[in-house]
Amino acid sequence: MEFTRHLTQTPTTDVERDKVLQNPGFGTHFTDHQVIIDYKDGAWRNPRIEAYGPIMMDPAAAVLHYAQEIFEGLKAYRHADGSVWTFRPFENAKRMNRSAARLAMPQLPEDVFVQALKELVEIDQAWVPDGDGEALYLRPFTYASEVFLGVRPALEYSFRVIASPAANYFGGPLKPVSIWVSRNYARAAAGGTGAAKCGGNYAASLAPQLEAEAHGCSQSVFLDPLNDNAIEELGGMNVCFITKDNTLITPALSGSILEGVTRKSLLQLAQDHGLKVEERRITIDEWEEGINSGQITEVFACGTAAVITPIGELKDGDKVIPSPAKTDVTMALRQELLGIQTGVVEDRHNWLYQLV
Ligand code: COI
Fold it and tell me: Which Pfam family, an example, fits this chain (predicted)?
């Protein structure tokens, strides 16, 4: 596809951008441009780069009423030679199309998705940070823009990509996070949209998120109450366990869990390192008992935004279950993954894709 460029007349100055890159935080600063592709009359049209800025939207746009919206998250990493790479972008392209199918939205060809990332990062490459654990977070998303209040799949959509320099998702230096067991709210159920990356799933995670924060935790863990409280995932990331017999366990994709690209990559890296890997049903009781008996030696959260973050403790009502202080395997996996992404560890699975 040929992208047209309508570049901003008011680019951020080097001084302002450097100030942002000194302390990028997460999700609060955005680059100078965005990608836009319209969907109308059954086809994707007019791929272009425009200045980053507000969306003018009709109040009756379908997304504002029935939440027909999907998104992705991936990162662009700066390598020592100045080149910029992303990680397994076709996995995100495929997942976005699976999400689109579930939300009755049109699919975008995978190569157009990846080209859109490349076009944006090429223009805004100066925004890719190079600090430890930092990257340019890319946020592709599609929403129903048709002006219509009937409940049916919209006929018009907008696909966009925006980009935001990012450091640690949880803020500050990396430290173990506390997790709250969500007993009052479920995230998703069989047959629902849990496996799709749609805004609605995250909206549903916010009341439990407030509950978690009220108990001093930074994320909730969601359970499947109809299946013996099998662990599903955290509000915005997957969860993994390391056992004393060198096994990495993560909940099996049940149809209501998001298939994380980081999750999938870690399953491979763990195997490369001689760990056994089990994708299976694991209940909250097994988590609690495993910690108490010493069978589970490490617990961590993983996702594009979270990378790999150790879980320091689990709070379940009045019970506090501390995770063991050990984080060796967690940190080794984190280092290897970040090493591949930033070009200092050999990319033996060909996961990297050069953007600039
Ligand atoms: C990601 O890890 O990219 C996510 O989408 C999680 C969250 C920030 C919504």
Answer: Aminotran_4
